[in-house]
Amino acid sequence: MTDSIDRRRFLKVLGVTGAGAAALSSCGIGPEPTERLIPYLVQPEDQIPGTATYYATTCRECAAGCGVRVRVREGRAVKLEGNPDSPINRGRLCARGQAALQGLYNPDRVTHPLVRNANGTFEDIDWDGAIQRLVAKVREAQGEGIVFLTGAEQSTFGDLVNEWMKHIGGRHLSYEPFGFEALRAGNRMAFGTATLPSFDFANAKYLMSFGADFLDTWLSPVEFQNGFSQAHAFDGGRPAAMAKFVYVGPRLSLTGMNADEWIAARPGTEGTLALAMAQVIMSQHLARVPADASRLVSVLAAHSPRAVAQAIGIDEVTIVRLAREFARSGGGLAVAGGMATQGANGAATVAAVNILNYVVGSVGSLVKFGADLAIGSTNTFAELAALTSAMADGQVALLLVHGTNPAHSLPGAFQQALGKVAYKVSFSSYMDETAAACDLILPDHHPLEQWGDSRPRAGVTALQQPVVQPVFDTRPTGDVILA
Ligand code: SF4
After folding, report:
1. Residue 27 pLDDT more than 60?
2. Of 103, 181, 233, 404, whose CB is crowded by the most CB atoms within 10 A?
């Protein structure tokens, strides 16, 4: 040691920093508590320290059902990637899917069962006690007074809830804030089926979006982003082979920003533009129109470009040009959604865009009904409104909520009606608005901690497996129901 740092001074500095660290620690701003690097006392056979393990499972952050591969190191999930073998996302994953890890390790998760006490606050309860309490409440409520509200749940878990409700005489409803009701109603108007079709973006030669933000959050975003990037890519360096993309809507959304042309039609007139294009295609024989489309002639007569141009705010020449481009591409695909379907005429806009697809022969090729998307199977807002009224009238004695947070998305009437339900049970992993209003919270495992499955569309079943041991004292809701 040099003269400037002799042994005595070194020990003094050490003493001061040690005391300082202890003082900071007592104020709660000290170093983080030490964590074990290897969380297993008894190491599972398939875990080798220093070597990553990969598990294939399914993303449950939305109803699209993308396949994921999870990289696990020393028992901890550290990275999610898309599974290239999944027919939905083919190796890609969106930001929301990537964020599943933040949900898994979120320190604000409900870590164990909670019950509301006489003071109105939550207190701890063990699992046996919590399940006994639930059983007692189910017996008390009996039959019609029991409602199980889940998110969009096309899965074995959803089947189990259905079976249980049938067995005890209750009702199972599913609710999703983005229920795509205008899309379902528009499909019923045009084709008599209130289902959601699948859209083949990859093989489209000309794309038109009437308000649908399909590169952001619409239906199955990763699948559509993939398809769009294929259709809109240079083919062997030939830009001519690239599908043109036209976005119609009053707001330049994320999807709109990727368009080759933006048509700022007046809000609410998107469907009128679609009908005007269909009128041009039929009257000028621009496509091989299906034989039975002749019945549309009288419907479309009132929608000539000259008649509607002023209302739409787009000149006649542009409408005719768009119709010609769309029909002559030999693979036109039009989709409607987002803001274009939020108004009173939302369903009519969808029906009009269906007609545009129909007159160019894309229904059955690029728009396929039958491969219905699971998200379209949720209950309607009208059915949820009826439930809210029944709750407000005191007709619901026991409400069980899993995978949805209606007190957040329907903060008015639903939240008030919650107060009239005799007993409310939440299976949420988080203290969300609905859970906070409940009497008993039985936190579910995170999807990365449990077995499960989903049927994102007809013909596709996606399996889900645990990739880590449970982080907290939670239980799969299916197991709680079986218990
Ligand atoms: S689109 Fe796919 S990756 Fe994104 S949240 Fe939904 S299921 Fe997960």
Report:
1. no
2. 404
Q: How far is CA 385 from the centre of its chain?
A: 21
Q: Are residues 231 and 339 in the same domain?
A: yes
Domain shared by 237 and 291, yes or no: yes
CA distances from 402 to 345, 405, 434 (A): 32, 8, 10
SS3 251: coil
What domain range includes position 459?
A: 48-109+450-471
* pLDDT for 240 beyond 80: no
Query: Which residue has a Cα nearest atom 6 of ligand 1?
Result: 62
- Nearest Cα residue to 417 out of 444, 447, 391, 449: 391
Mean pLDDT of the region 143-162: 92
In-domain check, residue 73: yes
- Which pTM was predicted? 0.85
Report the CATH number that the domain containing residue 277 is assigned in CATH.
3.40.228.10
Q: Point out the ligand 1 atom lying closest to the alpha carbon of residue 220.
A: 1
* Top-confidence residue, 63 or 36: 63
CB 145 within 8 A of CB 398: yes
Number of helical (H) and strand (E) elements in the chain, helices listed first: 18, 18
C-alpha–C-alpha distance, residues 482 and 477, integer Å: 9
Stated length of the chain: 483
The predicted structure's pLDDT at residue 352: 97
Ligand 1 site, CB within 6 A = 59, 61-62, 64-66, 89, 93-94, 96-97, 221-222
Q: Which residues touch 75 (CB under 8 Å, ≥6 apart)?
A: 38, 39, 40, 44, 47, 468, 469
Cα 79 to ligand 1 centroid, rounded to whole Å: 15
- Residue 295 neighbours by CB under 8 Å, 6+ apart: none
Query: Residue 16 falls within a domain, yes or no?
Result: yes
Q: How far is the CA of 153 from the centre of ligand 1 (A)?
A: 15
Please give the pLDDT value at position 5: 56
> What pLDDT is stored for residue 2 in this prediction?
46
- Ligand 1 center from residue 412 Cα (angstroms): 29
pLDDT at 78 > cutoff 90: yes
Mutation test of ligand 1: which of 62, 81, 83, 178 has the most ligand atoms closer than 8 Å to its C-beta?
62
> Does residue 292 lie in a domain region?
yes
What is the DSSP pairing of strand 206-210 with strand 244-248? parallel
The residue whose CA has the least distance to atom 8 of ligand 1 is: 97
Report whether 115 contacts 125 (CB < 8 A). yes
Which residues in 39-95 belong to E strands, given as ranges? 53-58, 67-73, 76-82
Q: What is the pLDDT of residue 239?
A: 60
For residue range 341-400, list pLDDT tens digits in order: 988 999 999 999 999 999 999 999 999 988 778 777 889 889 999 999 999 999 999 999
Atom 2 (ligand 1) nearest CA? 66
Instruction: Give me the phi and psi of 268, to 5 degrees please.
Output: 90, -5
